[in-house]
Write a structure and sequence with these properties.
Blueprint (H helix, E strand, L loop, with lengths): L5 H45 L7 H15 L1 H13 L1 H10 L6 H16 L7 H16 L4
Helix pairs in contact: 1-2, 2-3, 3-4
Length: about 150
């Protein structure tokens, strides 16, 4: 039997340790990603259940759950981008709410205008758009510098 050089044995054990550490790290990352996806889906389901109820809990939960799922699932990102390309008017408000500094009031106003346009077909019946224009005219008269 030939004896191995101690330096070679140390180097092999060092490589094995590094490989084992890499495998453990990768396994932990996959398990954490799967758990985060499951948490995001649970938050999405809770938001979907709470959205029709009175109060403003459902939509923020939907957005938070969607953010968690999209950050941890490549397949969900691909599907979301596909939906975004097919239905940009539906997905754009969600994307605006998912930004770092979301424009919550602007998105709510835009959705109110859209729903008013769907419900009240005649432009003469639409109150929100006319009201906004009246307020803007009043503000211009009040402050002529801007």
């Amino acid at each position: 039997m030939t004896r191995r050089d101690p330096r070679v044995v140390r180097r092999l054990s060092s490589l094995r340790r590094r490989r084992l550490a890499f495998v453990v790290r990768e396994t932990f990352a996959r398990v954490a990603r799967i758990l985060l996806i499951a948490l995001g889906v649970l938050i999405l389901l809770a938001g979907a259940v709470l959205t029709p109820l009175p109060g403003h809990v459902g939509l923020p939960l939907l957005v938070i759950g969607l953010m968690v799922v999209l950050r941890n699932s490549f397949q969900a990102k691909r599907r979301f981008i596909r939906w975004q390309r097919r239905h940009p008017k539906l997905i754009f408000p969600i994307r605006r709410l998912m930004r770092r500094e979301p424009e919550i009031l602007l998105v709510a106003w835009q959705q109110l205008l859209r729903s008013e346009k769907v419900v009240l077909r005649r432009p003469a019946w639409r109150v929100l758009k006319r009201g906004r224009k009246a307020v803007r005219r009043w503000l211009r008269r009040k402050n002529p510098l801007s």
